Predict the 3D structure of the following.
Amino acid sequence: MKLSYEWLGDFVDLTDVSPKDAAEVLTRLGIEVESLTLVDLSQIVVGKILEQVKHPKSRNDLWVHQVDIGGGRVQQIIAGAPNAVVGTLVPVALPGTTVPNGRLVKDMNIAGYKASGMLCSADELLLGDDHSGILILAGGTPGEPLTTVIPSQAIMDVEVTSNRPDCMGHLGVARELAAGLDRPLKRDFMPSFTGTANPPGRELVKVIIEDPDLCSRYIGGVIKGVKVGPSPEWLQRRLRACGVRPISNIVDITNYVLLEYAQPLHAFDLTKLLGAEIRVRRARDGEKLLCLDGVERELAGGMLVIADSQRPVAIAGVIGGEDTAVAAGTVDILLEAATFSGPSVRQTARALGLRTEASARFERGLPPELALAGARRAASLIAELAGGSVHREWPDVYPEPQEPVRVRLKPWVVDEVLGTHVPLQDSEAILIRLGFHVKVLGDGEWDVLPPVFRLDVTIPEDLVEEVGRVYGYDRVPPTLPGRRHDRWTPLVPSVDRRLDAARQVMAGAGFTETWNPALVSGRKLEALRIAALAMRVSNALSDDMDTLRTSLLPSLVDAVALNRDRGRNEVRIYEIASAFLARVGEKYSQPEEPLRLAAVATAGNTPDSGRAAFYALKSVLAGCLEGLSAPACTYQRGAAELFHPGRCAAVILEGRQLGYLGELHPTVADGLKVEGRLVAFEIDVEPVLANSRTPLAQPLPRFPAIDRDLAVVVEEHVAAGLLLAAIKESAGDLLESARAFDEYHGAQVPEGQKSIAFTLTFRSPERTLTDAEVDKVMTEIKLTLEKRHQAGFRV
Amino acid sequence: MIHGPDELLNDYKSQIAVTRDEKELEQVRVALFGNSGAMTNLIKEIPGLPKEERSDRGRLLNGIKQQLEGAIAARLGELRVERLADIVETEAIDITFPGPPLGQGHLHVLTQVRRQIETVLESLGYQVELGPEVETEWYNFEALNLTAGHPARENWDSFYFTPELLLRAHTSPVQIRAMQRIKEPPIYIITPGRCYRRDAPEATRLPYFSQVEGLAIDRALTVGDMKGTLLYMIQSLYGIERKVRVRPSYFPFTEPSFEFDVTCGICNGMGCKSCRHKGWLEVGGCGMVHPQVLRNGGIDPTEWNGYAWGFGIERMAMLKHDVDDIRLFYESDLRFLEQF
């Protein structure tokens, strides 16, 4: 929201407070000034147009002006807008001047005509958005600085928190500023102005609230005999400074009061309200309204509208209708000052995609007392600036008047909460400055009555905040809490810290960690056939993030593709994050969120490189489990979407399946235009952590080991794992370890067979083994392999 | 020709002196003391000598043997010194030549920053608490005083699955769950995790991000304690010269509520381009826990009070590592990730 420093000065004395100081004070009070625009007008002078002729040579529409700039000097200045007619007073930037919008004015020659200076638009002076013509001044003396007519401006862009609708206008912000500066506020909240004309307004217009749940108050100010015309320059300037376009005096005044009091107002042409009646009701399906912005809108059933006896004339709290709007010939007006429900206005504004100055204020929940203050202020301005007679006793439908909320405060609580000592009289003075009434009770507690515009203050903590922010939180010394506790929870390492052991292994293996978005394209999960348990967002921002991922792998494959696109061929990445799996049959419950570790690595585009990469990744996975101090897992031939059916292993730990390891299915890589093969794994890590055990030291072997190699020739289909199991079963206690280390196909073994080489280590904990003992065991092993797997042996 | 012991001594002494390396010296040693070495042979002759000569002869030979052994040991020492000197003199390499790539993977920068934050707060006695990312409306909003229709709700625009189920917009639901689980204060927890808000992706925000929130519930905690905790955290992460300020703000779940700012690390709070001449950088929100929120978590606000704070891990990482676009964290471009 934009605030004019000049305007704030109406309500609080700012003579020795610079705009920057004021911004600082407001920020510290909780009204964050996000930017401050200073508009220095002291270098611009007032000029009077003596002559205006069309540029005879230029092909563009240009006008050549002779401008009196005082002291008997006349400058020739060329402008593109025709509105600086003879006799008008205009802002002139002479050569050498930098205009507030940053432009340096120089002597120029335009198609043979000298141009010595520039006539300024409101836009160029940063006095508003209007660049359609030269800014015409209401007064001033040629040659005098522009600041004799228009003071230099400072515009603050502030962020008002949603609990402070009262600060959505200059008066509310000025009250804060006055409290922060400890200066009096020069304006009472409730103007004393009331109409006097007869007959009473309520005899001229009937107001009925049909839906009091959505409208808690409706005031209809009746003013007759106004003269519609332009509003005075100062008023237009202030509107422009706040980003509002001046239209006519009546409309401008309603906007002015909105910017001043934060109370949105609307003026109807009274004679156009059919039946001289206002009905606040929900729209009927199919009703339409041509709005002030020229757009005809279809209204939905729940929307609150203002209607006359026949039809909607405004969308409550959002925008007025064109047919009943104040126009050039309007004489009698009905001034609406109402209080509409915040959620209802927000819903309507959202549904219509139309957020206005009015809706932005109503959405926050305005106090009904504000409506009367705003109505009175606007009526007095209309009487002053547009003439007309303000009728007495307006219709004011206010079924449940706002109840004052008193708050009981133990004033010493201020010190207890802040952690510093604030003298009681300081606390009291601060509350009074902010408009609170404080009554000290016999027991020392305070009975505090917040001002009517502060619906946000309801509990003692709210009052502590009021005192704290004006007293200044910078004055609260930082401390660390510390006391004697007789109860505590010993530090348990977080899951993330425990997983650092796996991260260490991954890093050592050359894998870089990634964090990928959990929201992915549902369509893509469907194409990959992993969407069965996917949860779809009902209000997604876009198709490519409308569904929670059921697997981390597609994100990692995308990341591989992205890095390939950017020139990186070898990619090894992983991620630790949750996957999301809907619970079957429980559509509305929270999904399972298994924490997963997933990795993808690139490999060359041959069967062998895929195979080699598979085994390399298998070691990485085993390393992670070892790093996490879990027992070794086992592998079974698995089948999973995303994986190559011949190269997929289910990873099993203590009888529970953790996930899969394998080469990714060729269609997965192909669909993503990734060349070469990809190997990957994805496992649940929580069961791994659950099986993690502190490693216990084993005694070091005291006797030497005997190593033997064994090359086993079997049919192609026999898995190494089966042979290994047979070896371990038949070897007995002396076998310390056994590992397959080579697989051979070729001339030395028959067609359809393969040779797998194992290395076996034998050791006894009690004695040095002899070759004869080991030979005996080897014979046993060979017998078993022959019997079970028809194995032969190579020497 | 048979040498007498004295000749032998002199002859071999000079041979030892001219050996050029340990190998030659070894050859001399073998020629003397090997199985058929000259010295060995002389000693072998002793038993054939008349009885009365034997001991003199033995003594004589033993003296010579010791002298020769001493000469060999001394020469060995010299040769070793020469050899080692030669190694260091002749084997200089080009130390500017690069080592081979290590091939080490990198931890994600957000993991690193999250770890630092957790470590700092654990040192103050806070414990990590986790909770589900798909939350119920009650935990995400109602329990935090963000009732339906609340004007502040628009700051937490969320992704919904059903009217009751949504992606959490902050990790605050974990605070409520922790209060319900722990029941008996003191409670000192931090809640790192992923969050989601319905904001279109741009350089400063994403619809998905990560937060760390902190919650302290104890007896008689103060705004000063909250400020001290934030200051300790910021100084531990960014250096002791940093300052923290709290600015009044509004959140429905804390009262009073604040934004907290940190002095800009580039200008030390003097104001520069990167802090838009403010001297301060916005980091997060904080406040004293609203009594209704404590009640919603099952904690009696007349006995206990607390403070809470929250900030984005990405924001912290951006400040620490001078990252200017939040999207880089989630794009998985190795050229970015390998910088940390």
Observations:
- The first strand of chain A starts at residue 2 and ends at 4.
